[in-house]
Amino acid sequence: MPDYLLLMHNDAPGPLDWGPYIAALQAGGHFQGGSAIGPGLCARTSGPAPAVTTHLSGFMRITADTLDHARALLAGNPAFEAGGTIEIRELPKS
Fold this sequence. Notes:
Layout: E1 3-9, H1 19-27, E2 31-36, E3 56-63, H2 67-72, H3 78-81, E4 86-91
Antiparallel strand pairs: 1-3, 1-4, 2-3
């Protein structure tokens, strides 16, 4: 089963209760981890580095059968349910 990242944008009103959603993903065997995203920086060996992306607030790694299945697993995600943006990215096996 492929792995996907759910990237939470910081456009959902808070506070959000993540406990029930994470528990549901765990019960279904889909939750692989996640975290809030704090401040950071971009680095490169030459030239100016771009500014750090500021619209991301957290991520989750999940397993799902397909991209459509990963989208279906957004049901109950508190940021999604509050009208926030969730970016779904497949993590290709290489």
